[in-house]
């Protein structure tokens, strides 16, 4: 029998952490993080990490595992997550995977395709192009080559833009074609996928209020602290929503009100992309995290116990 895992997924700010924390004690489960930003140390406020008391109440995995200047990708996530799941099961506990990074979840449940290897010369050329004409120009090139990439790769995701262009220039085929051939069908687990969703207005209001609470909690000072530790603002995690805007405030590029407005807008756009990704998966069962919490709990118990 393949080991069982429950995945709690959905867009940012929808209430994944709260739901996972509510359900986990009822089924003797530990939580495995599937948020690509929460793996980084020192990025706390802007990533919405569970608080220290929450992590003491329910054991968490894959939070604070790498420094902001370390490489981290879906392959490494899958390796670490699979090891954590094995460890949890050996202790006789259950597993809740919670997060909104679709690629990490797909890698965990369906494996990864190998694809062509890295070409250092091509990558160096693409980096030079970014320095000369900007990342946006390369993103536009990618979308012209592979129109579907706009739902999978963010315009600011330098690493994935470079990889997608590298694959195309190496093989003459878009990255999506390679992925479609692989189809992520290495099924290592029995999986129950719980999707959390809210009405758009409700979700966007939560996003706006959470962004404001992050500012009040000291997100600007958190970014200053990262800079004082020697981390550059062009590092991948510091180019993410919230951190990028606060970095621009520190550099004098934007005022705080403008940065906050952009942070809210970019977070809403992120939520929309996440939902587009998840809606394509017919295995996901969708619920409202508060109105249907009892129903979710019963479903998880029936699956795991």
List keywords for this structure.
single chain; alpha/beta; 10% strand; 305 residues; Histone, subunit A; 6 strands; Rossmann fold; 13 helices
Written account of the structure:
- The longest helix is centred in the C-terminal third of the chain and has 24 residues, at 256-279.
- Helix 10 (219-228) crosses helix 11.
- 52% of the residues lie in helices and 10% in strands.
- A six-stranded parallel sheet has the order 3-2-4-1-5-6, with helices on both faces.
- 35% of the residues are buried.
- It has helices spanning 16-23, 52-57, 74-90, 102-110, 120-133, 135-145, 158-171, 175-182, 200-217, 219-228, 243-250, 256-279, 293-304, and strands spanning 4-9, 29-33, 60-61, 94-98, 190-196, 284-287.
- It has two domains: 4-112 and 184-304, P-loop containing nucleotide triphosphate hydrolases (Rossmann fold, 3-Layer(aba) Sandwich); 120-182, Orthogonal Bundle (Histone, subunit A).
- By secondary structure, it is an alpha/beta fold.
